[in-house]
Amino acid sequence: MVLAAAVQLNATLGDVAANLFACRRLADEAGDAGAKVIALPEFFTTGIGFLRELIDTALPVDGPATDLLCDVARRHGAMVGGSFLCRDADGHIRNAYLLADPTGVVGRHDKDLPTMWENAIYTGGSDDGVLTCGELSVGAAVCWELMRAQTVRRMRGRVDLAMTGSGWWSIPPWPPRPLFDRLEKANAATARRAATDFGRYIGAPVVHAAHVGELQCPMPWLPMRYRGYFEGNALITDATGAVLAERSRVDGEGVVLADITLGRVDPSDVAPRRFWLRRRGVLPAAVWHYQRLHGQCWYERNAVNR
After folding, report:
1. What dihedral do alpha carbons 212, 217, 221, 223 form, nearest 10°?
2. What is the CA radius of gyration of the chain?
3. How far is CA 184 from CA 36, 137, 180, 195, in A?
4. CA 8, 29, 236, 85 torsion: positive or negative?
5. N or C: which terminus of the chain carries fewer CB neighbours within 10 A?
6. Comparing C-alpha atoms, which of 279, 215, 207, 203 is closest to residue 249?
7. How far is the C-alpha of 135 from the C-alpha of 193, rounded, in Å?
């Protein structure tokens, strides 16, 4: 058994210094409690929204975000992971999940497909997300990667632990209010199930970090602002999907801790023969397509450092 920790972060959008300070404080809280596996969420340096300024906050791979992961890992003798906007030498920005242990960085995974307005901020990767840390195989996946059957196929029966994280935003309360309230209720349930069910698909325990807090930003191609919040759900499950510890959105920022058994078991669920593990709903599906089209064009014009 090993003590694992998942961080739930209330990030300040685009404020790298403030977010690194908060992540160090929360990760140290986990390490001081004895955690040897510590998961930070995706975008732990910035938060996420459709904000032009975020492209200027992308850090080099050998910058302060990586320094934080390595320092926490070294001081606490732990395995520490999380993702951030990373500006690579080719001029592109990627959502890079780095895994560190006391020796330094041991692996990297680039999120395969940006989600919705994220397409305007970074480009996708193509690796399988299976990282090696000593004798362990660790699966790294973030947010809507937990929604896709291709992620399961990459990791199923191959990893001893999944370290995941999300920055999953809510559906805003637009009119007609009863309809959008129902859509948000389904969205919140999907956000939680994406994390709780993942272990059953791959046959390994899951340590899932998350964002909470309010979010306001422009809406791509629309004359209105997004006003909502992040869904939270930092949690830890065993390889059967049983939730061992959880922090909901209303619990706010903090750390969840649980003892887990590292290692793989026979997966109890089989991924369906389709792209998505579960139905997204009509509105998220429509927004996925229109913001992907907008974001890919916007990214090429505004974010690539040629």
Report:
1. 120
2. 18
3. 35, 35, 6, 17
4. positive
5. C
6. 215
7. 29
Distance from C-alpha of 150 to C-alpha of 82, rounded to nearest angstrom = 21
Closest residue by Cα to residue 248 from 38, 29, 30, 8: 8
| Structure tokens that stand for 75 in this block | 């001081």
Asked if residues 101 and 70 have their Cβ atoms less than 8 Å apart, the reply is no
Structure tokens at 172: 């805003």
Residue with tokens 């992308």: 58
Which residue has 């807090």 as its token pair?
213
Neighbours of 111 (CB within 10 A): 25
Q: For residue 2, what are its two tokens?
A: 């090993």
Burial of 275: CB neighbours in 10 Å, binned 0-12, 13-18, 19+: exposed
Task: Give the predicted TM-score (pTM) of the model.
Answer: 0.97
DSSP letter at 103 equals T
Instruction: Dump pLDDT digits (tens) for 244-269.
Output: 999 999 999 999 999 999 999 999 88
Tell me how far CA of residue 195 lies from CA of 46, 190, 207, in angstroms.
22, 9, 9
Q: How far apart are CA 181 and CA 52, in angstroms?
A: 29
pLDDT (tens digit per residue) in 199-235 = 999 999 999 999 999 999 999 989 999 999 999 999 9
**Spatial separation of the C-alpha atoms in residues 202 and 128, rounded to whole Å:** 13
Q: Count the Cβ atoms, other than its own, within 10 Å of residue 2.
A: 16
